[in-house]
């Protein structure tokens, strides 16, 4: 079955960096666009970034543009999120999610991991 | 950026009643690329509806979506206790993808 497991979360000081990973299984990873979505404690969902199935196109939310980089290693079935210059307001649970449909640029988020908590605090 | 506004903020209904949730977009959603998700406490969101009206796999037919352009609706007929959750709409037609702020459904 489709499964995504996030890792790499933790407590980090403002201005520092952190890299999240999302290990995928149960499907052909290289056929699907992948996203990061975050949720601050007690708040709603905020879309962070997407990377196309082949890694050729990436898009970011305005609040993370220029600080976060999404990448993937299709040989390892793994998605990454490099987060630089972290801010207190980046504190959230970070979910990776898979497009419902394959090799498409317009797809809802059909499958989600359980998330990893990132806390930015001094 | 397309802003999605959901209403009401909270809906408190009894089992067996119908829930009607609204999602209004600040501009037309391309090709009705509008989805609905359910999130229960401590869990990841789950896809319910995509393309404004198509049910995801395993979603019962008492859950339905409708609408087009800028106005969309999620309807849950015959509410059950397990429907207690927060529901989010999301547009995936234009970058950045955006979510509404959510509607909390409480079962009395």
Element layout with pairings:
The complex is a heterodimer of chains A (122) and B (108).
Chain A: E1 3-7, E2 10-12, E3 18-25, E4 34-39, E5 45-51, E6 58-60, E7 68-73, E8 78-83, E9 92-99, E10 109-112, E11 116-120
Parallel strand pairs in A: 2-11
Antiparallel strand pairs in A: 1-3, 3-8, 4-5, 4-9, 5-6, 7-8, 9-10, 9-11
Chain B: E1 4-7, E2 10-13, E3 19-25, E4 34-39, E5 46-50, E6 54-55, E7 63-68, E8 71-76, E9 85-91, E10 98-99, E11 103-107
Parallel strand pairs in B: 2-11
Antiparallel strand pairs in B: 1-3, 3-8, 4-5, 4-9, 5-6, 7-8, 9-10, 9-11
**Strand residues, percent of chain A:** over 45%
Strands of chain A, count: 11
Helix content of chain B: under 10%
> Treating each run of at least 4 consecutive H or I residues as one helix, how many helices of chain B?
0
Overall form of chain B: globular
| SSE topology string of chain A | EEEEEEEEEEE
Distance between the termini of chain B: 36 Å
How many individual helices of chain A? 0
Provide structural commentary:
Helices cover 0% and strands 50% of the residues of chain A. With 122 residues, chain A is mainly beta. In chain A, strands 2, 4, 5, 6, 9, 10 and 11 form a seven-stranded mixed beta sheet that branches. In chain A, β4 and β5 form a beta hairpin. In chain B, strands 2, 4, 5, 6, 9, 10 and 11 form a seven-stranded mixed beta sheet that branches. Chain A binds chain B through residues 35, 37, 44-47, 50, 59-62, 95, 100, 106-115, and chain B through 1, 30-31, 33, 35, 37, 39, 43-47, 50-51, 56, 86, 88, 90, 92-93, 95-102.
Task: Write a concise synopsis of the structure shown.
The complex is a heterodimer of chains A (122) and B (108). With 122 residues, chain A is an all-beta fold.
